[in-house]
Structure formats: structure tokens, C-alpha cells
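We were asked to recover a plausible sequence for a given structure. The inputs and outputs are reproduced exactly as logged, with field labels preserved.

PROBLEM: sequence recovery
POSITIONS: 429
GIVEN STRUCTURE:
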């Protein structure tokens, strides 16, 4: 048991509740800390310093990770010299039934968060590197914007299907510049049929950057399809208005995504200009793996943060959330265990796309990563495809761990070559 005072902080949007426990788990002080009040933060620091004098031991602070609301208080307390642990809500939720009565309020939660330290040996959370924190924020915003873009594209598709279902027969990609320009200017079959021929052909040619012959052929096909679907078109005011709204939102989101990507590249370029460009060098190491581009590498680096916190590959696997769950009780041991999915959701999302890229083949039928493709095919002989893909994802995390640990680019080796290399190292030692 750790005999030191503990401060538990239940974080809210505008204020947080802090409860300080003595070494015997008695509540010795409580305080409400408003996030926009520097005075409250200073009073909280004074209260913690007083607790240190009373018990001759510096308090350890535990707070729950609550969106971005915990960040101001976390940084302020770290700067004041306190050890702070930011815990996963899953951990704090695990002690909600510590009491028999069903009581849920901020004061009670603050005490329970403090008790969490008594049950688990929590480690202090380091203040992330400023560049890493900035990169993490940019990457997360990128994926959020990308998800919104996908949602608006799906909505636009639904409207286009009602206005002119066979529009895709003319433009297979309705989100291309030419298709979007036509939809914005001529939203219904009636508008297309009434349009000036030369003006519409010119619009298609300008946006597609194709020849006049190609643009004229597209125009002829478009008019033919519009004439066929005109009697079936649901061209009410609502659909026409929402079509314009969705096109506008898609354009705005695409521009925003470009701005975020530009900011990520600028951040990396600024790091490269330094004497010790750790950010850029780590990204270069990650991009040595097949299927990892700049954005994927930036996301992995940003989400992992301090790599020194991971001493073994298994810990990084668990952080990615691709470790198997464990079901065991008495003599029973579960054999159909699913992926835990307790780690970073964004890391799993990126890892999934990287795994797919590593098991695919190129146009000339050669494998992008012959070692992982063979591994996947072997797993598929005894396991379902999704389970085999999960095994590839786990293997990739171990490879990422090795690359970051050794600070060496990835080298494609077969299992036999890897075994021979390890045997040679042991023999030399």
C-alpha cells in the first residue's frame, strides 16, 4: 500500500471537483476548481502544498481523461511540480461499484478516482512534446473532418439518386470536379435539357481538363440519360436546395482537409530545420514500412507519443488495442476470445489500412509485402479472414516497435533469415 496523500480530480466542462485523501483514505480537503479562473488553480496548488506539509509527503494527483477539458488543469499542475496521472475512463469506471449505495455526483467521483491509485500503481503522465501534441491534434482533426466529408458525400449521393439516378452512367465518380460543377449548375434533368449546348460542353471541358471531343461525347450521353430519367426525377425544391448545400459543404471540407495536411507538412518541415529533428527522423523510419505514408506515420507517432513508455512489444500491442481479451474463471478457459479494442481507436483505424496494403498485390501480381502476405495466407488456412487480418495487424505493431526501438529503417526479411540473424547474434555474444 502506498502511504502518501492522493488528490482525485473529477473533470467537467467548466469546473472540476478535487478531493484529497490522507494516507488512511480519509477525505481531508475538497475544492471546486473553475477552469477559467487562475485564482482557483493557484488555490488548488496552495491546498496541495499544505497537504504536503501536513503529511510530509507530496500528493499524487489522479484525473480522468475527459475530452480536452482536463488539459488546462493537467498542464498547470505539472508546471507546479506535481506528479499527475491521466487515467482512461475505463479504469475509473471499474471502481464505480466500490460502494453499495447507488450514488453518482462529482464529489463522490473525485474520491473514487483518488482511491483508484490505492488499488493500482499508476504512473505519472509526462507533458507531451509540444510538436507531438500539435501533430496529434492536427491528425485527429484530419480524421474527424474526413469522416464528416464521407457523411456529406453519402447524403449527396442520396439526393443525386432521387434527382437523376442514371447520372453515374455519365460520371462514374460524381465527386469529380466536372460532375460537381454540372450538378451545381444544372441540378435536375429539366435543367440539363434546357441548358445551352456550347456552355455545358465548355463547363465539362474546363473542369475535366479533357479534349473537346471527350467533353462533347459526355454532353451527348448526359442529355440522353437526362431525357430518359426526366419523367422519374423527384425534382422538388427540397432536393434541389439540399443538393447545393451538400456540394458547398463538400467543397469546404475538402479545402479544410488540405489546410490540415499543409499544416502537418509545415510542422515537419520546421522540425527538419532543427539541429536534432527527432520528429522528422521518426516519421522517416515509420515510412520505411510498406503501406505507411506521411499521414499514417504522423498519426502513429502522434498517438504513441513517448515511445520510451513501452518496454515490450506486448505493451504497444495493448496500446493499439489489438491484443486478445482473456476469458478465464476457475477451470474454464475461453478459446473464442475477441480483440480487446481497449487502446486507441485511431491507431487501429490506421493499422487496419496498413495491414490491407501489406497483404495486397500490385498490378503485375507481385506482393507488396511477400512476407506478410505469406503469413496472412497461412493464417487463412485455419482461421477466418478477419482473424487472419488481426494477426497481421499484431505482427505490424511488433515490426513498428522494433523499428522505433532500434532506430533503423525496416528491412524485408523472411522468418528464416530473421532466425539466422538472431542465431548469429547469440553466437557472437
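RECOVERED SEQUENCE:
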Amino acid at each position: 500500500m502506498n502511504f502518501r496523500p492522493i488528490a482525485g480530480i473529477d473533470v467537467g466542462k467548466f469546473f472540476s471537483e478535487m478531493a484529497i485523501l490522507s494516507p488512511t483514505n480519509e477525505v481531508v480537503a475538497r475544492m471546486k476548481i473553475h477552469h477559467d479562473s487562475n485564482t482557483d488553480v493557484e488555490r488548488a496548488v496552495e491546498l496541495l502544498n499544505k497537504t504536503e506539509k501536513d503529511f510530509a509527503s507530496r500528493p499524487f494527483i489522479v484525473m480522468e481523461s475527459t475530452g480536452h477539458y482536463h488539459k488546462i488543469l493537467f498542464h498547470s499542475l505539472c508546471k507546479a511540480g506535481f506528479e499527475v496521472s491521466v487515467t482512461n475512463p475505463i479504469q475509473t469506471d471499474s471502481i464505480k461499484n466500490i460502494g453499495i449505495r447507488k450514488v453518482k455526483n462529482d464529489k463522490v467521483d473525485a474520491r473514487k478516482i483518488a482511491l483508484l491509485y490505492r488499488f493500482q500503481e499508476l504512473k505519472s503522465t509526462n507533458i507531451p512534446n509540444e510538436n507531438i501534441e500539435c501533430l496529434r491534434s492536427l491528425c485527429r482533426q484530419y480524421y474527424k473532418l474526413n469522416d464528416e466529408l464521407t457523411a456529406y458525400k453519402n447524403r449527396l449521393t442520396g439526393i443525386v439518386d432521387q434527382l437523376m439516378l442514371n447520372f453515374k452512367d455519365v460520371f462514374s465518380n460524381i465527386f469529380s470536379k466536372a460532375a460537381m460543377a454540372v450538378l451545381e449548375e444544372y441540378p435536375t434533368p429539366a435543367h440539363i435539357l434546357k441548358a445551352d449546348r456550347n456552355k455545358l460542353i465548355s463547363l465539362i471541358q474546363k473542369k475535366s481538363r479533357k479534349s473537346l471531343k471527350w467533353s462533347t461525347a459526355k454532353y451527348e450521353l448526359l442529355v440522353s440519360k437526362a431525357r430518359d430519367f426526366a419523367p422519374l426525377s423527384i425534382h422538388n425544391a427540397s432536393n434541389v436546395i439540399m443538393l447545393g448545400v451538400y456540394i458547398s459543404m463538400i467543397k469546404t471540407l475538402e479545402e479544410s482537409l488540405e489546410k490540415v495536411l499543409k499544416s502537418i507538412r509545415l510542422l515537419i518541415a520546421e522540425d527538419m530545420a532543427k539541429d536534432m529533428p527527432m520528429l522528422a527522423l521518426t516519421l522517416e523510419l515509420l515510412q520505411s514500412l510498406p503501406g505507411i505514408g506521411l499521414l499514417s506515420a504522423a498519426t502513429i507517432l502522434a498517438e504513441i507519443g513517448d515511445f520510451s513508455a513501452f518496454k515490450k512489444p506486448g505493451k504497444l500491442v495493448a496500446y493499439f488495442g489489438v491484443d486478445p481479451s482473456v476469458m478465464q474463471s476457475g477451470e474454464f478457459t475461453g478459446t473464442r476470445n475477441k480483440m480487446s479494442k481497449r487502446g486507441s481507436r485511431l491507431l487501429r483505424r490506421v493499422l487496419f489500412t496498413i495491414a490491407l496494403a501489406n497483404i495486397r498485390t500490385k498490378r503485375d501480381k507481385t506482393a507488396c509485402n511477400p512476407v506478410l502476405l505469406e503469413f496472412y495466407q497461412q493464417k487463412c488456412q485455419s482461421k477466418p479472414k478477419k482473424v487472419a487480418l488481426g494477426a497481421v495487424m499484431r505482427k505490424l505493431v511488433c515490426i513498428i516497435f522494433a523499428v522505433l526501438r532500434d532506430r533503423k529503417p525496416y528491412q524485408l526479411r523472411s522468418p528464416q533469415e530473421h532466425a539466422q540473424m538472431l542465431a548469429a547474434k547469440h553466437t557472437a555474444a
